[in-house]
Amino acid sequence: MGHLNLPPSKRNPRQWKLLDIVSAFFFALVLLFFLLVFTPLGDSLAASGRQALLLSTSDPKQRHRLVELLELGHHHQPIEACPADSVDHMPCEDPRRNSQLSREMNFYRERHCPLPDETPLCLIPPPLGYKIPVQWPESLHKIWHSNMPHNKIADRKGHQGWMKEEGPYFIFPGGGTMFPDGAASYIEKLGQYIPITDGTLRTALDMGCGVASFGGSMLKEGILTLSFAPRDSHKAQIQFVLERGIPAFVLMLGTRRLPFPAFAFDLIHCSRCLIPFTAYNATYFVEVDRLLRPGGYLVISGPPVQWPKQDKEWTDLQAVARALCYELIAVDGNTAIWKKPDGDSCLPNQNEFGLEFCDGSNDPSNAWYFKLKKCVTKTSSMNGEYAIGTIPKWPDRLTTAPSRALVLKNGIDLFEADTRRWARRVAYYKNTLNVKLGTPAIRNVMDMNAFFGGFAAALKSDPVWVMNVVPARKPLTLDVIYDRGLIGVYHDWCEPFSTYPRTYDLIHVAGIESIIKLPGSSKSRCNLVDLMVEIDRMLRPEGTVVIRDSPEVIEKVARIAHAVRRSATINDKEPESHGRENILVATKTFWQLTSSSS
């Protein structure tokens, strides 16, 4: 049958409309192809496409496959850079994520970590214009503005002596809200009431620390102060503190115990920290009491101490302290100083806050994701001598085996052997492996698997401070570390650490695979690739990582080190050491985002 030919005016107009659309779409594709291939737009879109692919969490299988390839050494390209707006990213303190959570007891400002499959597998870049940090001790007084160009604190607090911008630097005059004339004169005043200079006090906790003028000044007195504050409206106060070379940690006192053992600190200090100590039936004061060593000192400056319109809060604060038998040493202006009793609190059966002693099932040193308790820790609930006056003064306490080492079988012998072992190992690091310990190049140090703190103790003569991390699933030996006058925290290395990027000059870990394994098992709870990427986030450009483990593990770590842009060498262990170990020493390269990747 033949086709019926119609004149043009009689043909189907809808058929012509469809042909027009198809033709237009075809020519648009051709135009887009030429734009992508022959113009800068293509580079820009390609970069954003890589970032979109990189940050996608919709396909965990793809991520798992990449991790597997990296561990086997079959992925020969470096891990991609994260986007430019991630230069200050802290995965567990992400305001965009945590702002959706409950405000009750500041729950939303505590740690809340994404699942590994929700975490981008990328390397945090430094900010534009980043420079190798000013070295210690000059960094105590000035840092590069370009390394953290956040002016909010300087604008808001400059008149109180916190910090100010001066040329290419931020300058730190040493002031604070409660001591605008400088922390030195404030500490001198405290010295009239508490023994600051004779070695009685060594470990201190500064709550809500600002830029840590207090902690920085206490270093001159031989007191090691761990300063903490949350990630807050000032954006980067802890980042400034760490850039200065002062011990610090991002932390919020909210619904959980702070990640420290019981009776850790000789001195706890709050200068306008605005913690509501008597709220929630004095739960926060009870947590401070758990952390404060018997015979230790509590200093609160600012509200509510003799503060206008806060008479009730000040009365309640004194009442809580009396209920726990704290001795009020002095009230000097807006500063109150208490001393904790050496023995058990004289907590009465009845008090207005409903406080009671904890029962025998409570382990006061269990503090990793542990909900705050409203009960008071008995001093007698823990064996050993740990009160002020019963432990040696600094520096003798560094090398004296604490009685709390007996938490492990043959703990005293283990302690002494560990101290000798790390003295040999650190000497080998310096003299044979040429690790720059003891030079101005290294100030902020982390030991990721600290045990008794032997590595840190071996650095006692170096101009460093060490964050001793005790993995939360290993024996809880952090109390021993504090008893010997060092500082540290509990942490689980299958999660990111609570610090800003580019924090540490040197990161050390002995037995890296053991800190991600299930206790008593050969199975891992997470993977070495994510851990190495997290180490990279914490390490400063040109910083050093020292890892010791079996040859098989070190070979795997070396493959991953290449992917995270580190130059690495594998070394034999020191001759005196037993067992099968190699030592990897790697340096983080100083790379920056290119225009096409930013």
From TrEMBL:
Its EC number is 2.1.1.-. GO terms for molecular function: S-adenosylmethionine-dependent methyltransferase activity. Its main location: membrane. It holds the Pfam family Methyltransf_29. The chain crosses the membrane at residues 21-41. GO terms for biological process: methylation. One of its GO terms (cellular component) is membrane. It is an enzyme of class 2 (transferase). Keywords: Glycoprotein, Membrane, Methyltransferase, Signal-anchor, Transferase, Transmembrane, Transmembrane helix. It is found in: Endomembrane system; Membrane. Belongs to the methyltransferase superfamily. This is Methyltransferase.
